[in-house]
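Dear Dr. H.,

I hope your travels went smoothly. While you were away I took the liberty of generating a structure for the chain from your last submission, since the lab meeting agenda had it listed for discussion. I wanted you to have the full record in hand beforehand rather than looking at slides cold. The sequence, exactly as received, is reproduced here:
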Amino acid sequence: MNPAPSQTPPVPAGLLPRLGAVFYDSLLLLAVWFCATAILLPFTHGEALRAGNPLYTSYLFMVSFFFYGWFWVRGGQTLGLRAWRLRVQRPDGRPITWLQALLRFLTAMVSWAALGLGFWWILFDRQKRGWHDLYSETVTVRVSKDYLRSAR
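The corresponding predicted structure, in token form, is as follows:
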């Protein structure tokens, strides 16, 4: 159950806390990839999947999207975002939609591919939005400890 949006305007999250959350989430995503790969092993008779296999790459891409999308849509927080007291939401405080999650995910991939330029953009935007925030019409904000307690 998501608590009601705060009456005070949310404080946009800066670059360093976001990168901290990305680091935490990358460790968790790596574990998810291991589990997702283990699920495939019976279908390959225990053989390793070859690097560059387009089906396997697409599978991991979809697993990654559903990992992030599920958390963003369900409560706005992955484990990394929660640890850094951040939340992804619409500007009005409501949870994002699956379409916004997809746009955010794809744009974040482009941001990383452009040597992180979409994330560095946070340093220059007055509202501390990255490309993925802008394109998906979402915001990443700081949340209080009280918010985290009430979200349990």
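Two observations you may find useful: The CA atoms of residues 7 and 139 lie 16 Å apart. Helices lie at 15-40, 54-74, 79-83, 98-113, 117-120, 131-136, 145-150.

With kind regards,
E. W.
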